[in-house]
Write a structure and sequence with these properties.
Elements: H1 2-12, H2 22-35, H3 37-67, H4 95-116, H5 118-125, H6 129-163, H7 175-202, H8 205-226, H9 229-235, H10 240-243, H11 260-284
Amino acid sequence: MSATALTARTDLLPAPHGRAGLRGALVSEWTKIRSVRSTVWILLILVAATAAIDILSATSWAHNLNQGAPAAVPGRPAPVLPPVPLDTAQLEGGDYLGQLIAIVLGAIGVASEYSTGMIRTTLSVQPRRGTVFFAKLAILTLVCLVVGEIISFGAYFVSTSLISSDGVHFTLSNSDTLVGVIGGGLYLTGCALMAFGLAAVFRNTAAGIAVPVALLLVVDIIVHSALPTSWQTHVVRYVPMEAGPQIFASQHTPGENLTAWHGFGVFMIYVVVCLAAGFWSFTKRDA
């Protein structure tokens, strides 16, 4: 009876048709990333922590700037601060913490499925691994870019409204300022994608977090401490931790730092290499 009932119920199901494609993979990955509780919490922490440090960094910078202003004299107009160039890094200080949180988000975007074994189910439904990889990559990029730009622009507007009371005024009509604010979100997205690629190689969340952190922080420390001073000038600017943040640092020293887009271009070369390694591992190795 049970077999007959089961057969009858199965016959009621619609016949399978079509095949799984990129659109279905994108919908699947979007469902995963918004339904996993840990991902939501990481995004909330990323927003709160990064924006808070951005605002504190900007207000502290404005306060220190005012400490050097001429003292007010009774009976005379209050002294006006001379125009100063905005180092957008003062408004994006939280990105140095945010990059670590973005790395965690990028790593769990692929490694979590390996740790739970869910990747086998994913690949059985969509056996074209390249499609799955690019669907994961596209959704992660979209989420990180949107969240990163919300953080960056939100921190900018809140910070500038706070420091305007100290007589310091900035505007997005300045191209360097606009590039710096946009660059904050771009840098966070790049960090997440670097971790995504490396996590696809190592298939482990811990390694997917530790290796990009080492690539960003440890390599930077080694270059600064181990290389001769004469070498540092030529090498340091091409280290990912030094090159990437140039996108949101609108002040650059010729001969020492790369320009905003050149630095970010060098950083993205590292990211593309990590993604290429992750793609090869994801498509060629058994799940």
